[in-house]
Design the sequence.
């Protein structure tokens, strides 16, 4: 016979009674949360930047089209602002950072000859279009 774990409220747990400040906040978060919600809360408690990919979406018929769903905290926005990223909304700031991150990854992996060829091809083709989706998401095609 397996025993069912009883989850008592945080305030009734004797281990929580003598905790104070951030130690108490961390213990409460660990008691009540899990996964990315816990990671974000712990970062918030410690005033640390936090960003994670929640989901990756793509079109199975055209996998070049897609987007990442990100989650972040205010400390992450503050860090980006200090690094020179600006925008009217937090989404705009994060989108600019993510664009730069993706460009950097591409440039790191490219041979300079290949990069020059791609630039020439891009100049002869139509430009990439950027579409603002609901909930502040952006799609490139």
Sequence:
């Amino acid at each position: 016979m397996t025993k069912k774990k009883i989850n008592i409220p945080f305030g009734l747990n004797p281990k929580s009674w003598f905790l104070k400040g951030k130690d108490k906040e961390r213990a409460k978060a660990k008691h009540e949360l899990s996964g990315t919600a816990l990671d974000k809360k712990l970062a918030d408690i410690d005033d640390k930047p936090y960003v994670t990919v929640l989901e990756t979406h793509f079109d199975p018929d055209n996998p070049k089209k897609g987007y990442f769903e990100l989650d972040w905290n205010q400390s992450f926005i503050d860090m980006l602002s200090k690094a020179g990223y600006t925008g009217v909304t937090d989404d705009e700031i994060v989108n600019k950072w993510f664009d730069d991150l993706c460009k950097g990854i591409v440039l790191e992996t490219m041979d300079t000859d290949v990069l020059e060829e791609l630039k020439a091809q891009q100049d002869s083709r139509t430009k990439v279009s950027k579409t603002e989706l609901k909930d502040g998401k952006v799609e490139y095609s």
In short: The radius of gyration is 22 Å. The chain has a mean pLDDT of 85. The CA atoms of residues 102 and 108 lie 10 Å apart.
